Amino acid sequence: MIVAMKKGATKQDIDNVIKNARSLGFDIQLNVGSEKAVIAILGSATGQLSVDTFGVMPGVDSVTRIMKPYKLSSKEFKAEDSVFDIQGIKLGGKQVVVMAGPCAVESEPQILETAKAVKEAGATILRGGAFKPRTSPFSFQGLEKAGLELLAKAGAELDMPVVTEVMDPRDVELVMKYATILQIGARNMQNYPLLREVGRARTPTVLKRSLAATITEWFSAADYLLAEGNQQVILCERGIRTFEDTARFSLDVCAIGNTKRLSHLPLIVDPSHAAGHFELVPALAKAAIAAGADGLLIEVHPNPQTALVDGLQSLNFANFQRLMTVLKQIAQAVGRSI
Ligand code: PEP
Ligand code: MN
C-alpha cells in the first residue's frame, strides 16, 4: 500500500502516518521526493487493511493498493528516477556510465593493463570477477581474496570505482572491503539469504536479471535488497534464455523500455553475456544505449584468446576503443553523454 502525502504535508503528518502503520504491525519505507513524500506500507497483511485507515489522516493525498508483488522498486513508490553518486560518478542521470574490464581477474598485469585501456577509452568503472560462478566445478573459480586485492589495487591506481561479484552470504563482508559496487550474478538473483545479507550492506549493488526470470521476479528480488535498507540497487539486463541458440542469451530490449517505465532504479545492460561472442557485443551495446539504458557492463581482456573465462565474448582493447567511439555518438543522439 502506498500513501502519498499532500505537497504541503508537515513532518508531523508524515510521522503520524508512520506511527499508525507501525502500531498496526506494518513496516514502512519513506521516500521524501522533491515534490512530496511517499510512504510504502509493507507487510503480508496489507490486503486486509482498509485504504481509509490512512486516507482520513491529515496531510494524506491518496492511498493506493499496489497489486504488483514489487513495491519499493516501483515508480508508484518513487516517481523520480533514482540517481546514485558512486564516488562522484552519477548513475541514472544524463551520463551513460560504462563499466568495463575482464570477466575474471587473472593477474596484476592483466587487470592493470585493462584498467588503463578501458579508462583511456572512456569507461569510468572497472569490472573484474574474483569469485566466479562456473557451470563446471572443475573450471577456474576465480582468484578470490587475491583477486579482490588486485582489483582494488588497479582501481585505486587508476582512480576508478570497482564492481565485483559476491556469490556467498559469508563473503559479503570480505568483498565489501574491496568493492565499490557489489554484483549479484544472474544465477543468484533469487538467492534470498544472499539478497538479505547484501541488502544490509550500504554499498551500491548491481542486481543481474536471472536468465529465467520475468521482470516482476527481478524487481521483487530488488525489493529484497531495498527492504533491508540498501537503497542503491542497480538493475542489470544481461539476456535471458529463449529458444534462440545463435546467441548465448537473448538480450531483452523490451526489458530496457519496461524497466525505465516501471522502476525508478538505474538500469545497466551487459551486452557481453547476452552475446556470447565478441562480434555481437557492439550491436547489443549500441541498442542498449539507444533504448535508454543508464550504463553498460562490458567484458574487455588484453588478450581474449588466452582469457581463463569468457574469452570468446571479450573485446580486445582496439575493439573496445572503436566501440566506445560509436557509443559516444549514440549517447549524444539520444540526449546523453558518455
Ligand atoms: C559476469 O558478470 O561475469 C557473470 C558471471 O555474469 P552473469 O551473472 O550475468 O552470468
Ligand atoms: Mn563473464
Set down the secondary structure blueprint:
Blueprint: E1 2-5, H1 11-23, E2 27-32, E3 37-42, H2 52-55, E4 60-64, E5 84-86, E6 89-91, E7 97-101, H3 108-121, E8 125-127, H4 145-158, E9 162-165, H5 172-178, E10 181-184, H6 192-200, E11 205-208, H7 215-227, E12 233-237, H8 253-262, E13 267-269, H9 271-275, H10 281-291, E14 295-299, H11 317-333
Parallel strand pairs: 7-8, 7-14, 8-9, 9-10, 10-11, 11-12, 12-13, 13-14
Antiparallel strand pairs: 1-3, 1-4, 2-3, 5-6
Helix pairs in contact: 3-4, 3-11, 6-7, 10-11
The structure holds phosphoenolpyruvate and manganese (II) ion.
Q: What does this molecule look like?
A:
It is a single chain. This protein is α/β, with parallel strands linked by helices and 338 residues long. Helices cover 35% and strands 18% of the residues. It contains 11 helices and 14 strands. The chain has helices spanning 11-23, 52-55, 108-121, 145-158, 172-178, 192-200, 215-227, 253-262, 271-275, 281-291, 317-333; strands at 2-5, 27-32, 37-42, 60-64, 84-86, 89-91, 97-101, 125-127, 162-165, 181-184, 205-208, 233-237, 267-269, 295-299. The strands form 3 sheets. Strands 7-8-9-10-11-12-13-14 form an 8-stranded parallel beta barrel, surrounded by 7 helices. The chain has a 4-stranded antiparallel beta sheet with strand order 2-3-1-4. A two-stranded antiparallel ribbon has the order 5-6. The longest helix has 17 residues, at 317-333. It is elongated, with a radius of gyration of 21 Å. The model has no long low-confidence stretch (mean pLDDT 97). Residues 103, 273, 299, 309-310 line the site of manganese (II) ion.
